[in-house]
Design a protein that fits this description.
337 residues, 16 strands, seven-stranded mixed beta sheet, 27% helix, alpha/beta, 10 helices
Length: 337
Amino acid sequence: MNDLAISSPPAVRGQSWKVTFPCTRAEAEALDGDIAAFALMDRPPVLMTSEAEPDNEHSWRLDAYFEGRPSQAAIRLLRSLVPSAAGVKPLVEQLPDEDWVTLSQQGLEPVTAGRFHVRNLSSDPAAPGHVNFLIEASRAFGTGQHETTAGCLIKLDRMRRIGMRFGNVADIGTGTGLLAFAALHLWSHAYATASDIDPVAVEISAANAAVNGVTLGKGQGQLALYAAAGVDHPAIATRAPYDLLIANILAGPLIELAPSLCAMVEEGGTILLAGLLQEQADAVLAAYRAQGMRLAERTDRGDWPTLRLRKRPRIGWKRPTRIDGNARGEAPGFGSL
């Protein structure tokens, strides 16, 4: 591990910390993006900047929210992001028993990605001419703010615009459910499955589905939600093979899950990968090429690539016609929550 590949101590459930450094407005604006080194952490912090004194460009602040007490290496990295704070002792504090992810996401600006407009506050106006989603600040990640999530939304929009069609979609590591909602909007007659290793994220996805008019269930045009590590759930396996599988997670899990994810995709099917950094793309691609995938398209947003891969079809390939043990034309009830 190099000196920038830092990690925090194991998090204690409910334990949240905040580290605050003073900074200048110029330093705050320079942080308007994703910090590559933090992406290598198991639980990267959420960075927020704000004015400490109105109309004073030299009096801004950087707040970093951590799940678990931050390591000294993480604090040193934060200090390096704001050179004006050299020699300044940071404010390191354990937060009350509150939801730090929700707190850090409050006040985020709406994001437009392709045809989609994602707002995080119900008071924000909808965008005319766009598909609007309301994903309020919550205990799960995936509000559309991160470059990887926005990149996936743009890629899904492009795939629909160039005429790609899908009938059985899976979103692995769904977070707030946003990418699954977008896919179901684009291919409204598809079967859709979404899973997350965190049961809380599954609960939040269900609540977000209700807010955004997404029907839960196992039938066409419905979303089945499951708590699972990767695709390790009998219902996810039963609903396979998928012709579109989305995985917006970190590079390490993407590589580790490559055999199991590719096994869930039908021949000729598509996998959309995100959550990796540019320098991790070759390793991720190698893992998926070893499973019979080929790169069809790559789009970079800053340091974050989005990869569209296609599973090489065999001669005589024929699209499967069954799901959940029933013909696709049937609707076998509601998904498990």
